[in-house]
Structures are given as C-alpha cells and as structure tokens.
Design brief:
Length: about 300
C-alpha cells in the first residue's frame, strides 16, 4: 500500500470513473486501474464495482474511504508542518460551500485574501446544499465547510449573522408593509426552498402552529425568485442568499423582514481544530477577519 494508491482510490471514488481520475491526475487510465487492483489485492477486498453505468464504491470501500481520507489528511498536515519549518506554505485546502450566502457573499472575499497570503496552497471548492456540506465534513471529503450555526457535530467559527426575509411580488398586497408575519404568509400559495434554509423555514411555521399552503418546492434560488416574481406565490429565504446582484435579476420582486425578526448565523466548521492542517487553521482565522471587515457585517449583527 502506498499513499499514491490511496490518493488514486479517493479520486476515482469522488469522480466516479477511471478515465476522469486519470485526467485529474495526469496519468494513464491503465495506471489508475493498476493502482486500484494492487490496493484491492493488498487488502483482500473489493473497493470498487465496475459496471456499464460507471464505477461505484462498494459498501466495504465506503467504510474504508473515510479512514483513507483521514490518513491522507494527516499526511498533508505533516507535509504542511514540515514546509512551515522551512519557511514555505504549501499544500491543499478543500472547502465545502453552499448557495449564495457563502459562495457569493463570503467565499470570494476570503479566497482573495487567502490567495494573497498563501499563493502556494491549492484550494478546491465544492458547492452543495448545507446537509451535503455537513456530510462531506463527516466523510472527510472537505477540510472545512460552511454551515448554519449552531451545529454540535463540529467545531465551528462564527462568521456572520443575517435574518430570514419574506419574498413577495412587487404588486402583492403585503409588499407595502415594513415587515410581514408568518400568519400573513399563510394566506397565500407558498414556494418552499429545498436548499439551505429549508429546515429552518419549516421549523418556523411548525413552532408557530401554522401551516403554509406549499404549492411549489425548488432547490435553485433563481427559480424561487422568478416563481415569486411572476406572482405564483410567496416565499422565505435568508437575506444573504438574495444579495443585490441576485435581486437585480428580478425587478418585480421585493423582500421584507419577518416580524418578529428571525436571525440565522453562518460559520465555518471542521471536525477538530486540534487535527486541522496549517492551511485549514489559517483559513479559519483569515475568514473571521475578512467577514468582520465586510460593509454588511455591522448592519447584520444583532
């Protein structure tokens, strides 16, 4: 067993194919296949199932994949420690992000500052829904991920707090109000997000003993905005998920704060600060500093 074989196993599992993995690694497909066969032979197990629809990870492979990622993470942390003692900053950082709040509002500013300070560290970003990012953290597919706080499964660093807002067509009877209540939204067809704020929005109505008339459910923010804009219903999203550059695409749409106000905190999470690589720890510290420097941070804080 070699670290190269382990790395190839992880990449084949993530990309779902030998050809894609070979392209990522810059080696031949036969070299990828050979590495997997050697690893399976050394362990006496089948890691990957090869079929007409592609490559899938076996149940045994899935269980071992978590440990392999953990081992590779420790190896990378050691390399970064060694580089740091020589005055170098090398390595890789894998980030999990979700939706406009992190991918549009927070991450670009953090990555810009991080790239200036640590230009030799390779950064990889995967975007998914918030529950997917949490799963990636648990499976060690990413080193650090954006999460809605609190999240007791991980060690976290708070970055920003925003609020949930009601989305309304600009011609809607409620659009003239300064704030909108949950009860008022229940009088109209409701467009429910399947993305980051879904659980929080559903929990709000349940806690208030209310039942919105959900007629449509969408994962994409733009789809929700356009659906509301054309008058097919009302919705609730996080304020930072609909920043000015997104709202600019929907001139017939307005957003109003809820009454009473409902806050939402967003931060970064890792499995353990003690086992973080130097790159991850640097990213956490820099992210908090960058978030505090943003012009919208003060207005969103309680």
């Amino acid at each position: 067993m070699t670290f190269t074989q382990l790395e190839i196993f992880v990449i084949v599992a993530e990309l779902g194919g030998f050809t894609a993995a070979a392209g990522r690694l810059g080696i031949t497909q036969s070299a990828v296949s050979h590495a997997i066969r050697q690893l399976e032979a050394a362990w006496g197990v089948t890691l990957l199932s090869r079929g007409p629809s592609g490559v899938t990870v076996t149940e045994t492979g899935q269980n071992l994949l978590v440990r392999v990622r953990e081992l590779l993470g420790v190896s990378d942390a050691i390399r970064q420690e060694v580089s740091a003692t020589r005055g170098l900053h090398r390595g890789a950082l894998r980030i999990g992000s979700f939706g406009p709040t992190s991918s549009l509002q927070l991450l670009p500013h953090i990555l810009e500052a991080f790239g200036r300070q640590f230009p030799e560290i390779e950064v990889f970003v995967d975007e998914g829904e918030d529950h997917e990012v949490a799963r990636w953290l648990e499976e060690r597919r990413v080193d650090v991920g954006f999460v809605v706080l609190p999240d007791e499964r991980f060690e976290t660093v708070a970055l920003v707090q925003d609020q949930l807002v009601a989305l309304l067509p600009s011609t809607h009877p409620l659009a003239a109000k300064r704030a909108v209540s949950l009860a008022e939204l229940c009088d109209w067809p409701f467009v429910l997000t399947r993305a980051g704020s879904a659980g929080m929005v559903e929990g709000l109505f349940q806690s208030a003993g209310l039942q919105p008339r959900v007629t449509q459910r969408y994962s994409q923010i733009v789809t929700i905005l356009k659906t509301v804009e054309r008058g097919a219903g009302v919705s609730i999203l996080a304020d930072l998920a609909v920043p000015p550059q997104v709202m600019a695409m929907c001139h017939g749409l307005v957003k109003k704060p809820l009454t009473p106000a409902v806050r939402r905190a967003v931060g970064l999470a890792v499995r353990s600060r003690k086992s973080c690589s130097l790159a991850t720890e640097a990213f956490l510290k820099l992210a908090r500093s960058v978030a505090r420097s943003q012009p919208w941070h003060a207005s969103l804080s309680p």
